[in-house]
Design a protein that fits this description.
Helices cover 22% and strands 33% of the residues. It is α+β, with helices and mostly antiparallel strands. The strands form two sheets. Strands 1, 2, 3, 4, 6, 7, 8, 9 and 10 form a nine-stranded antiparallel β-sheet that branches. Strands 5-11 form a two-stranded antiparallel ribbon. Strand 6 and strand 7 form a beta hairpin.
């Protein structure tokens, strides 16, 4: 089961857990209130998993590829790691399914505080369009993930500040309604 918590303010190695002391866990329900959705799937059988097939069909996730993030596998590894960890948003949902390894997605809550979501083999997450987020490997320095899209993939990340995009405005409206 996925684990999430509020992050500390340390500037130490981004791959460390960065838990506050005492730890402030974040529930799956709280993540759902932010528009973040989570599934635990069978990563060993992702090619034939009927649950994954159903999720893909229900959400129109028609395009997919697999990315391996490791210094020996990803061209321009150091540059990519920096780009992934830069706070940004997308105009479409970001859907990631961890097939091997582990890492962290960090998302901003409604008060603009970082929440760290630990992802490992079998975890699938959807981050809504317009949410500020970032990704980093953990200390294992390896992850193999499936990337899913509705239609053709759009890879564009918009670094913060990007509040002028309609996707951000829609997300902020969603948050305002979720609080009511």
């Amino acid at each position: 089961m996925v684990e999430a918590w509020y992050m500390d303010e340390s500037r130490e190695d981004q791959r460390k857990p960065h838990r506050q002391e005492p730890n402030r866990p974040v529930s799956l329900e709280r993540l759902r209130q932010l528009g973040v959705h989570y599934w635990k799937l069978d990563a060993d059988n992702y090619e034939t998993d009927p649950v994954l097939a159903q999720i893909r069909e229900e959400n129109n996730y028609s395009w997919m590829d697999i990315i391996t993030i490791h210094k020996d596998k990803l061209p321009n590894y150091e540059e990519k790691i920096k780009i992934f960890y830069e706070e940004h948003l997308h105009l479409d949902d970001e859907i990631r399914y961890i097939l091997e390894g582990s890492g962290y997605f960090d998302v901003r809550d409604k008060d603009d505080t970082w929440i760290r979501i630990a992802m490992e083999k079998g975890d699938m997450i959807t981050l809504p369009a317009g949410i500020y987020h970032r990704f980093t490997l953990d200390e294992s320095n390896y992850v193999k993930a499936m990337r899913l899209f509705v239609g053709e993939p759009v890879w564009t990340a918009y670094n913060r500040p990007a509040d002028h995009f309609p996707a951000r405005e829609q997300y902020q409206q969603f948050l305002a309604q979720a609080v009511q």
